[in-house]
Structures are given as structure tokens and as C-alpha cells.
Write a structure and sequence with these properties.
15 helices; mainly alpha; Growth Hormone, Chain: A; globular
Length: about 400
């Protein structure tokens, strides 16, 4: 069966996966807080379970992608994630949602790192870095369409978009198995495929790559800090909004319509901002990325702090939109930042490490956010905004190291 061109397939992947995940995420937090009736602590524990699984499996699955097949790893990942969401949509209970969260984390680790490494192999690193920003627009467009689909489905049943989105992800895994190319990847020799020593060698090479490059260590440190703040924010902002404000009824539908429109507005704004960033910022110039990350991270911290103490729904919505935009732009920039001048042999492993440090950050802060939420969810969200601030001096340090590295290379 004829395979699709890698660049075009990556854009399709970005659009469709974002569409399916958007269907799910528009309602997931609301579903867990209302239909399943999870408490603030339970919501955080669900997120912590996800991150523990990611921490345990991020590097091993990255090694699988480096030693066996990027495509196989990606297909397995989407199949497992789709199955996880089907379970959550069918069973609105804490234990089932906890299980689904663990499966979701496992599936994610098979795609994390492998997708970026696959694209870099197929079209080259520089073209891939440009593609990350380009694909972000398709990602945002897919999220917008997914939101439009989720609103009427969620009005019928809040769990329906989760169930159908999960089934669609399983179907997409089958599509990738049939049409995804893998022409420039050199897998491990057959005699090495079951050799744990071979996998250990790849992991050690990845560690050596990070240790030999102080810039990369600083970049991964920023990823750790992003993990620190995100767990408290991701799991609690919906519950805080539902508990503290009377949400407007839109189009005669339930609250799903409000969250869908809010997500859609964030997507449209993010598309516009991403286009400007793509035009003005060189995704292959690390210092340019660092400067952009510095501004975006500062705005993100300010927006979350504002949300925590806003007395008005309108101000809270404005802060939410700012959080959405900054995070949607930070994501592809951070991918391009990590992806600078990596060895093909260890690319997936090193990129997976960036996901692992994020997971470590979320695991470290998740239980604390849950404990603080027992006292006040507002305090837990404010705490999340403060956890971002150490990223600012670390980004500045990475930028200085980039400058030193470029100077030394120029002298050579």
C-alpha cells in the first residue's frame, strides 16, 4: 500500500489528533468534576497517576523508538491512548478514571519523542523544526473543529465526546499503520533487538549528550519547571470556575457549550499569534527561541496569578485566554528548542527525556497542589503561578549559554 509523504502526513496527524483530543478535552475536566464527582484531591491524583506512568515509561519507550521503529511506537501509542479514553467515557468512577489515566500516560510515552524523531529522520532537522511551528496551526485548527463537534455531543451526554474521541483515535492508529512512511530510519540489527545492553547503550548515549551540553541541561530544567506548575493548573481551573462563578447558558445548551466556546476562542487567538511568531522568529536559531520563551513564560505566570484572584467572570475569561495562547505557542517552540543539533541515534531518547523531566515536575508538585486544594483551590492555583517564575532566570541562562556556544563555534 502506497505511503503518504512524511511532511503532509505530519500535518494530517497534527490536525486529526488535535481534533480528536479536543473533543475529549473540551469536556474531560467538567466530566470528571461533575458527572464523576471527583474532589480536588482526586482530580490531582488522577493527574499524578498519569505523570508517574509517563516518568516510568518515557525513556524506555523512547529507546524502543530508537532501537525498533518510530512508526510502530507511534501506532501502539495512539491505540493505547484511544482505548484509555473509551474506558473513561464508559465508566465515570474514580477507579476507572485512575486506570484510564495510567493507560493514557503509557500510550503517550510511545508517541512522545518518537513523532518528532520520525519527522526529523524523514525530512531533516531544519525542515522538521520549521514544520513544528507550521503544524501548530493545523493542530489549533483541528482543536477548533473538535470543539465544534464536542459541543452538540456534550449536550446530549457529557461523556459522549470522550467515548467517540477515543474510538476515533483507535481508528487513526490503524490509518497510521497503513499509510505512515518510515524510509530513513535504521533500526537495530536483529541480533540486538532483544538485547537490553543495546537499549542501555542508547540510554547512556542520551545521558552523555545531555551532560556534554550545558545548554541542553538548562533547557530540560525549564521543562521540569513547566511540569511543576502545570499539574495544579490543569486539574483545578475548571473546578475553580464552576465552584465560584455562575456560568452563562449558551445556545440553550448545558455548560459544555460555554467551555467549548472558551476553548474555541483560545484556539483562534493562538492561531493568529502562532502565525506572527512563525513569521518573526527563526525556529532554527536557539537564542531567538529563548527570547520568545522568556516573554511567553512571564505572561503565562501573570495570567494564572490573575485568574486565581479575579473577582469577575470576564477577567477570569481573559486570563484563561491568555493562558491558552501562551501555552499553545510555548509547546512547539520548546520542541524546536530541545531538537537543536541532536544525534539521530539518540534523538527520540533525548526528546523523551524532556517529557520525563516534565513528568517529574508534575509528580513533585501534584500531591502538594492536592493538599493545598483541601484548604483552598484558589490558593493551589496561585501557588501554580509562583512555581513558573524560576523558569525565567533559567531561560536567560540557557540564552547566555547559547551565545557562548555560538561564539566558540565561530572561533573554530
Amino acid at each position: 500500500m502506497k505511503k503518504l509523504p512524511a511532511y503532509q502526513l505530519y500535518l494530517v496527524l497534527s490536525f486529526l489528533t488535535s481534533l480528536f483530543f479536543s473533543m475529549i478535552f473540551v469536556v474531560m475536566s467538567f466530566y470528571e468534576a461533575t458527572v464523576a464527582g471527583l474532589t480536588g484531591l482526586q482530580l490531582v491524583l488522577v493527574g499524578t497517576t498519569l505523570e508517574v506512568v509517563i516518568l516510568l515509561f518515557e525513556v524506555p519507550t523512547g529507546i524502543v523508538a530508537d532501537a525498533y521503529s518510530r512508526r510502530l511506537s507511534i501506532v501502539i501509542g495512539y491505540f493505547i491512548m484511544g482505548s484509555a479514553f473509551v474506558i473513561e467515557g464508559l465508566f465515570p468512577f474514580f477507579s476507572a478514571i485512575l486506570l484510564a489515566s495510567g493507560l493514557w500516560g503509557l500510550g503517550y510515552t510511545f508517541t512522545s519523542g518518537a513523532t518528532q524523531a520520525w519527522l526529523s529522520d524523514e525530512i531533516g532537522e531544519e525542515a522538521a523544526n520549521r514544520a513544528f511551528l507550521r503544524a501548530n496551526q493545523f493542530d489549533l485548527a483541528g482543536a477548533f473543529v473538535g470543539m465544534l463537534i464536542a459541543i452538540p455531543l456534550g449536550n446530549l451526554s457529557v461523556g459522549l465526546p470522550i467515548l467517540l474521541g477515543g474510538a476515533a483515535i483507535i481508528g487513526f492508529a490503524v490509518f497510521l499503520a497503513l499509510f505512515m512512511p518510515e524510509t530513513r530510519f535504521a533500526p537495530a540489527k536483529p541480533e540486538d533487538r532483544n538485547n537490553w545492553q543495546h537499549m542501555d547503550d542508547i540510554f547512556k548515549k542520551g545521558i552523555a549528550t545531555v551532560r556534554s551540553r550545558p545548554v541542553l541541561m538548562a533547557v530540560l530544567g525549564v521543562g521540569f519547571i513547566y511540569g511543576l506548575y502545570s499539574e495544579g493548573w490543569d486539574r483545578l481551573w475548571v473546578k475553580y470556575l464552576v465552584d465560584n462563578f455562575t456560568l452563562p447558558s449558551l445556545f440553550g445548551m448545558n455548560e459544555v457549550a460555554f467551555f467549548g466556546v472558551l476553548r474555541g476562542a483560545g484556539m483562534l487567538l493562538s492561531i493568529a499569534v502562532t502565525r506572527q511568531v512563525e513569521k518573526r522568529l527563526d525556529s532554527n536559531h536557539a537564542p531567538s527561541i529563548a527570547k520568545g520563551m522568556l516573554w511567553l513564560t512571564g505572561l503565562l505566570a501573570l495570567a494564572i496569578f490573575t485568574y486565581a484572584f479575579s473577582p469577575l467572570l470576564a477577567v477570569s475569561i481573559g486570563a484563561l485566554l491568555m493562558v491558552s495562547v501562551t501555552r499553545n505557542v510555548i509547546g512547539p517552540l520548546y520542541n524546536a528548542w530541545v531538537n537543536q543539533r541532536l544525534d539521530p541515534d539518540t534523538r527520540a531518547t533525548v526528546i523523551s527525556m524532556s517529557g520525563q523531566v516534565d513528568a517529574i515536575g508534575q509528580i513533585a508538585s501534584g500531591p502538594l497542589a492536592g493538599i493545598v486544594s483541601l484548604w483552598s483551590i484558589q490558593a493551589a492555583i496561585a501557588f501554580a503561578s509562583l512555581l513558573i517564575t524560576p523558569a525565567l532566570p533559567l531561560i536567560a541562562r540557557a540564552n547566555r549559554l547559547h551565545g557562548i556556544s555560538e561564539t566558540s563555534q565561530g572561533e573554530k
